[in-house]
Amino acid sequence: MPDLSQIVKAYDVRGVVPDQWDESLSELFGAAFARVTGAGAIVVGHDMRPSSPGLARAFARGAASLGVDVTEIGLCSTDQLYFASGHLGLPGAMFTASHNPAQYNGIKMCRAGAAPIGQDSGLAEIRALVEEWAATGAPEPAADPGTITQRDVLADYAAHLRSLVDLTGIRPLKVVVDAGNGMGGHTVPTVFEGLPLELDALYFELDGTFPHHEANPLDPKNIVDLQERVKETGADIGLAFDGDADRCFVVDGRGEPVSPSAITALVAARELAKHQGGTVIHNCITSWSVPEVVKENGGTPVRTRVGHSFIKAEMARTGAIFGGEHSAHYYFRDFWNADTGMLAALHVLAALGGQDRPLSDLVAQYDRYAASGEINSTVDDQAGRMAAVKAAYEGREGVELDELDGLTVTAADWWFNLRPSNTEPLLRLNVEARDAETVAGVRDEVLSLVRA
Fold it and tell me: How far apart (Å, rounded) are the C-alpha atoms in residues 85 and 91?
């Protein structure tokens, strides 16, 4: 019996192939997805990992066996699958393990209109059915099985994104893109085609073994090649995508990383110019700059927990126009509340190309504070260390505590957030302050408590 507790996570399915799951299990997931969504038709896509085509086709067979018609869109980015789900009005399944190593694969699932499926919105039921069928055998096939057909939506996806951001009048820009051998190598050429951009393509060959570096641009070592190429060539901007190309990381013309909080603030200002008075969602680890910029541009900032399910739920609840996270996930109402790094990248290119200053000057107004970045500490007792930190700050004058997500401690000139990892024995610390010296002081004080 497969141990599904190891592969069914809070928001998706993810594990090592074939050790933890394989095509026979994927077929059961397809049938369970069909049963839980109750849909007459679904859409399925996959990334460039060696195991992805077989897993995706097995899932399609499982759904079709219960009478569901399946549209296969083949190779795609995760946000391209969300586009297909929204555009076609169908539940969708994306086969990817994002930035995980080559031996991993997974499934990100959504209902029609790219509405997320997580533990509380269908994933627990899907898991229960797969466990039942793995023990007793696959469900009885429908008398009239569904069809499996192919459809290419890449051009439609690109056209939709281009309809949301006007790049026609921008100055010519030299852009380096590091696709990390992931799906950005598939989507970027079509999305950028015909724009006044000189594209310098790094690692666009689709290769799920990731021969050059991990496709995780949040780890500084994975953007070194991009930084060097931008500086060598005098490019205006560098963009790095993760393995399934739903996240985008930005490097300025000096080769310096631009914080995702600054990108969130920049895109928020642009979206508020289009949707005046709108609500913008940001998680509790984004910079103070984000709510400040939102208010300055006539919008309403709403703070939420970290994680796409919380962001998407708040966007649906509030009718928000945009949401951003410190992890370079960007969510748009105009994109079915789903995350798309590509649309965020187009906004940055439009902002940069619409004026004459370098990107470092442009983003300075959105990057107002010093920050530590995320610092991980391995601990034996997450709850005990969290309690020790809370006790140290509780009752301290001029300090406020909240536990929206982990522990956030806020003072006049600084704040920090400490939260436990859901999957590892780690505590994650983020500190922000008005200057680097204060960041260092707060960081060291908190880490002395965490690592005591």
Answer: 6
For the chain, how far is it from start to end, CA to CA, in angstroms?
A: 42
| Main-chain phi, psi angles of 371, to 5 degrees | -140, 155
For every residue of 175-216, which 3-state class applies, written as one string? EEEECCCCCHHHHHHHHHCCCCEEEEEECCCCCCCCCCCCCC
Q: Which residues contact 452 (CB under 8 A, 6 or more apart)?
A: 385, 388
Same domain, 147 and 160: no
Strand-strand pairing, 426-433 and 375-378: antiparallel
What is the C-alpha to C-alpha distance for residues 331 and 323, in angstroms, rounded to an integer?
A: 5
Same domain, 145 and 14: yes
pLDDT band for position 61 (cuts 50, 70, 90): very high
pTM, full prediction:
0.96
Q: Verify that 52 and 137 share a domain, yes or no.
A: yes
Report the amino acid identity of residue 66: L
Tokens of 160: 């939709």
Phi, psi of 49 (to 5 degrees): -65, 145
Q: Identify which of 343, 372, 347 has the alpha carbon closest to the alpha carbon of residue 362.
A: 347
Under 8 Å between Cβ of 198 and 175? yes
Q: Which of 364, 382, 406 is the last residue of a domain?
A: 364
336 is in which domain, residue-wise? 260-364
User: Rounded to an integer, what distance in angstroms lies between the CA atom of residue 234 and that of residue 184?
Assistant: 22
**Residues in CB range of 186: below 8 A, 6 or more apart:** 48, 75, 76, 77, 154, 206, 245
In 218-260, DSSP assigns E strands to 237-241, 248-251, 257-258
Mean pLDDT of 207-219: 95
pLDDT in tens, 376-400: 999 999 999 999 999 999 999 999 9
Residue type for 83, please? Answer: F
Helix (H, G, I), strand (E, B) or coil at 405: coil
Tell me which residues are annotated as active site: 98
Total structural domains in the chain? 4
pLDDT at 10 (0 to 100) = 86
User: What are the b/e assignments for 346-369, b being 16+ CB within 10 Å?
Assistant: bbbbbbbbeeeeebeebbeebbbb
Q: Among 163, 200, 203, 165, which Cα is nearest to 183's?
A: 203
